[in-house]
């Protein structure tokens, strides 16, 4: 395994912010500034019912002049917001099933360049949608903001920024991955214990960050507003065949909506700790595998590279040392605890609000079954005392 510096470069991981995009751009030069200005004013345009008209009037721009990665990511983020807004508009069931070519063509071209699907993904709305208010200040909720908003006021900021802070806290552990593999290779138990303790502490910090969701995200606004704009068109009865990307594909395409299930960080620690989600329910494992296609290709490759690394779990098992086993278990416990907490949050933000609606059937039950299965599989990987 390479040094952490080499890993960071090869797999587009940042030392400070992990899988998040470091210091994302906020502006694009003409003619792309047109996209930015629509995306920036989305809530207002939707409210005045002018959004679709604005999009229909857009000129078609080639994406050739968008050369560097950060410009491409910003354009993908802005076009993603505009696309979600165009399809769902006021979130009242009046949906569009065709994305006009003036936006569909550049969006699909750009998506191909980035290796991302043409829908708003976690890598857009969380990983590339942030800035520090005071550039010299800390990475805290108070000193940060998002770049683009959906209707629903501060709900977008709360949901996207808290997700980002969870992500960044957990990502501090990436830098010890080479130490972890080196320790296994050299059978250096002390070094391994040190790396495992560090990983567990980062995961516990991620849990603390997660708790902030209660302060910043209102369940009813999340459920009734933001969730609509994040919905995709895969298995969605409102767009049963998917979305037609005019001028790019002849047939409608299905893509799943944006969710933190597209984050690489949980999958990264599952792999590192040898927690095989594939040993759990097949549908859960298939879903997590599918979510990898919504991650930036460099991050997908990183997960694959970890899968071919030495097995930390096998090493811990082979040693039969209770102290080492306890340190390994602390990491697995931290993953279980994160997933437990996540289940509580999903109950609060999806299941309870959906029960309040007359028209139930929002899939709350199947979501809980899936998440419980993933949590259960994680728990099964705790090493029991012999
Ligand atoms: C209001 C807050 C949240 C809600 C309502 C929520 C909801 C969901 C739902 C419904 C799923 C099932 C898959 C899907 O439908 O896409 C899911 C999966 C997932 N979410 Fe969240 N989520 C929230 C916050 C977060 C945060 C902050 C993170 C961490 C950054 C996160 C990480 C995950 C992961 C990793 C999965 C995949 C399952 C797993 O690996 O355990 N979620 N979430």
TrEMBL record:
The keyword Heme applies. It is an enzyme of class 1 (oxidoreductase). Transmembrane segments: none annotated. InterPro entries: Indolamine_dOase, Trp/Indoleamine_2_3_dOase-like. The keyword Membrane does not apply. One of its GO terms (biological process) is positive regulation of T cell apoptotic process. GO terms for molecular function: heme binding; indoleamine 2,3-dioxygenase activity; L-tryptophan 2,3-dioxygenase activity; metal ion binding. It is found in: Cytoplasm, Cytosol. It comes from the Eukaryota. Its EC number is 1.13.11.52. One of its GO terms (cellular component) is cytosol. It holds the Pfam family IDO. Catalyzes the first and rate limiting step of the catabolism of tryptophan along the kynurenine pathway. Involved in immune regulation. Monomer. Belongs to the indoleamine 2,3-dioxygenase family. PANTHER family: INDOLEAMINE 2,3-DIOXYGENASE, INDOLEAMINE 2,3-DIOXYGENASE 1. This is Indoleamine 2,3-dioxygenase 1. It comes from Ursus americanus. The gene is IDO1.
């Amino acid at each position: 395994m390479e040094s952490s510096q080499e890993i960071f470069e090869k797999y587009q991981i940042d030392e400070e912010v992990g899988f998040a995009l470091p210091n994302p751009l906020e502006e694009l030069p003409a003619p792309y500034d047109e996209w930015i200005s629509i995306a920036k004013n989305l809530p207002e345009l939707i409210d005045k019912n002018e959004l679709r008209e604005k999009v229909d009037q857009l000129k078609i721009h080639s994406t050739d002049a968008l050369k560097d990665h950060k410009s491409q990511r910003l354009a993908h983020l802005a076009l993603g917001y505009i696309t979600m807004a165009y399809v769902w508009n006021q979130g009242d069931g009046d949906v569009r099933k065709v994305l006009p070519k003036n936006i569909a063509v550049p969006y699909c071209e750009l998506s191909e360049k980035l290796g991302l699907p043409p829908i708003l993904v976690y890598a857009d709305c969380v990983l590339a949608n942030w800035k520090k208010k005071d550039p010299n200040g800390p990475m805290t909720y108070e000193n940060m903001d998002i770049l683009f908003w959906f209707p629903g006021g501060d709900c977008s900021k709360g949901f996207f920024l808290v997700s980002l802070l969870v992500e960044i806290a957990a990502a501090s552990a990436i830098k010890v991955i080479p130490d972890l593999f080196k320790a296994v290779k050299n059978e250096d138990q002390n070094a391994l214990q040190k790396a495992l303790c560090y990983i567990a502490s980062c995961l516990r910090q991620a849990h603390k960050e997660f708790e902030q969701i209660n302060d910043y995200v209102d369940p009813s606004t999340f459920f009734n507003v933001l969730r609509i704009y994040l919905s995709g068109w895969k298995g969605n009865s409102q767009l049963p065949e998917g979305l037609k990307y005019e001028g790019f594909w002849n047939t409608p395409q299905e893509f799943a909506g944006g969710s933190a299930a597209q984050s690489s960080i949980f999958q990264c620690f599952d792999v590192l700790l040898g927690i095989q989600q594939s040993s759990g329910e097949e549908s859960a494992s298939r879903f997590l595998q599918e979510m990898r296609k919504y991650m930036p290709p460099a991050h997908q490759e990183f997960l694959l590279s970890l899968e071919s690394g030495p097995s930390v779990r096998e090493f811990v098992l082979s040693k039969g040392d209770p102290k080492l086993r306890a340190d390994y278990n602390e990491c697995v416990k931290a993953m279980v605890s994160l997933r437990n907490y996540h289940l509580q949050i999903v109950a609060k933000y999806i299941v309870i609000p959906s029960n309040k609606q007359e028209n139930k059937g929002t899939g709350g039950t199947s979501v809980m079954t899936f998440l419980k299965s993933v949590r259960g599989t994680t728990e099964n990987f705790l090493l029991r005392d012999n």
